[in-house]
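Lab notebook page, bench 4
Experiment: in silico fold of construct C2
Operator: M.H.
Input chain length: 630 residues
Purpose: comparison with the prior construct
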Amino acid sequence: MVNVAVGAVVGAAWLGRVPAELSAWTRAYVGVALLSSVAVLALVPGLLFLVIHRRTKERWRLAGVVQALVGTLFLALLYTDTIVHKLLGYHFNGAVLNVALSPGSGDAVNLGWTVWGPVIVTLLLGTSLQYFVWRSALGWMQRREALDQRVPLLLQPRVVCLAFLVPAFGIEKSVYAAADFQGDSELLIASKRLPLYPRIRLGRILDPVGTKVPALELMPRTSDRLGYPHEKPVLPADGARPNLFLMVLDSWRLDTFNDELTPALAEFAAGSRQFTNHISSGNDTRFSLFSMLYGLHGSYWFKVEEKGKTPEACPPALIQALTDEGYDIRVFSAASLKFPAFRSTTWVSLPEENIVDSFQHPDGRPRSTISWEKDQFVAEAVQDWLDEREARGDGRPFFCFVLLDGPHQPYFNPGGPYQPSVPRLNYVELGRAIEEPEIDPLAEKLWNTYRNCVLQADLTAGTMLDALSTRGVLDETVVMVTGDHGEEFGENGYWGHTSNFSDQQVQVPFYLKGPGIEPGIEDRPTSHLDVSNSLLELLGADPSRRAGYSLGESLFDPLPVRNRVIAGWKHLGVACGAGEMIDIDLGPVPHELEVYDHRWQPLEGVPERCADHEATLRRVADECARFLAR
């Protein structure tokens, strides 16, 4: 009971994202739903308490200590989830577990002792306090037993459950079911602020055609088999065979591509084809690079990853075609390619020696775990490889993919002109800064730190571009420079990436330069989804056969008007005209649809807005099933 009460107080932070203008009815519902949700979550430690007492029997001190530790961990996880929710807008989910359990994820999330130190102290203090409460309650019960007095009726577990928790659970679930049937978007959106919220989908049963809450089926089912590609791209024997050099800066947002922050990249962009209306096809590295190299929507990632662990591994059609043409294919990454699982997806067909993503001393120790230093090691490795090619007289064309990690959090950098900055990221403090970024001094420090990282990454990127020039291969090399996704700093109430499809998280710089590339400005809508098929078409592939291996369009002849698809973890966004973004929740089938503006604020009239884009949604549904055998 104490843990449920304290947990409800802790979990109240989830409601910070509930809009202030909610009706009194919805606010009352959310309060009851908060208590009900925490009580449901508390069933897990409650069952552990039962096991503890049965296992420890008469060793009451041991029972108290273990129970206190379990209770403290329960509250600590609730609090951690409120921080995740405050920063990213979602709760512990498959994406969070994937980060926590995957090898190499330390390159993406680096907590450090500024977080772990307070966590350990808090766990010790919390366990001590829980034990004190438990021991006090036990003593009180023993004194009542000595006096032959029963525990008061209102404190007996079955009475508490039947009189308070079960009614609260039943009432708020009934209210939710009614709101689902009526299409009450205000209440439905408010309920999503609560973690693992079990939803009674009465609307889906009584309104299967989705006139009140539109739905769609996109996500691959367990029985679906991957059928990619339908046909392999064919490159003519007399086609051009330039080198291909693709450089991606992690978390590089569009408005930091300028003469001040990226002088080397901006100077190199002179004479290039610059795409000013370009977006990433994912709000994180996983889906962005996957779509860039496969030409598929991010919804295919899980099927491709699953197949990559079998003898039927499925490399991108681009990489397979370049391999068949004898290209020297190399990959250099400052971040581990074990997380996300690029070694079993995009680079599954490459020999181990063609991939460089670790930099070690002769004794096996890492040369560095600092992102900007690893970026420098990448630049050195690229130059060494170019020198080796020249020394052995390797005349094969090459495909070189480079991923720099410096602008990604935790924003390590050697210092820079933008001050004040932060020496190390503290996620707890960060959660507070995002609440009021306009007035919190930490928000300015974070932005300055990020800009210092971009400036440092530009310096490193420039050395590699210079190396192409000094070694005499630049004139015969197509160079692509871009970011995998953007980065948000509280502009819409979020931080970082992976949380939504706002402009700050999906708009990235993008330009191409080299033989066969006409210089100029391209302002028609393009996407990372277009990269692989456009490179193949640059080498002579027939554009009319594109649909057999790609969902992208041509970067060299873009459509004048286009609705573009962006992938996230279990979400798909469709960027439509007039600043609308349809968000498809790839959870239970059929998938729910919501509509947001470019600042990621929910819009009213979801059924009508979705109806206006029915043709686009049907196209997206077809594309997400095109390479699946159903």
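Observations: The longest strand covers residues 243-249. The radius of gyration is 27 Å.
Next step: discuss at group meeting.
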